[in-house]
Amino acid sequence: MNELMDAFSSSDPSNVSTSVKLILLLTVLSIAPAILILMTSFTRIVIVLSFVRTSLATQQMPPNQVLVGLALFLTFFIMAPTFTEVYNNALDPLFEEDISLDEAYDNASIPIKEFMSQHTRQKDLALFLNYTDSDKPESIEDISLITLVPAFTISELKTAFQMGFMIFIPFLIIDMAVASVLMSMGMMMLPPVMISLPFKILLFVLVDGWYLITYSLLQGY
Predict the structure, then answer these.
(1) Residue of 42, 41, 45 whose CA lies nearest to 115
(2) pTM
């Protein structure tokens, strides 16, 4: 901290530039979780994967660490073109001192806005625009991140729950069929979950469920 204060008090432009880079890095790291969750594909992916585990009724299998880790890697895979564009147009020129901090922020926000706007419903965006009495934007650059981020988030939540509903249907049918068979046999004291669980796992493995889920998530972007 003392070195950082000394750099600010110094008149050497290189020291000031280094201090700005350190502050920028610390700021990005502090808000990185919020950026990752609310401004990328992470929300949809982790919710869909959680729906898969819940519909299978396998309790904690796969563990939370596995689901979150898979969601993170899929997020980085999907967001790689956007992150590359942000680095090439904003971070790299900023570190080379070719552009100012304000210009870097504007250059970094454009590809992120383009990604979010492609997956944001107009109804959700209009909700926040009307609430703030904002004028109708003429281009993506005119949309504020304060407005676009919550609109993108609720759009992602709706899409994730729609996918989760479709995932639940075949497993629900298996549960209902097993429960009906057990009731017709008079075995009402036997929990249907104990019988249906192996069939649900077998169905999921036979259709290569993890491949289909991952394929659907990737195709959604």
Answers:
(1) 41
(2) 0.76
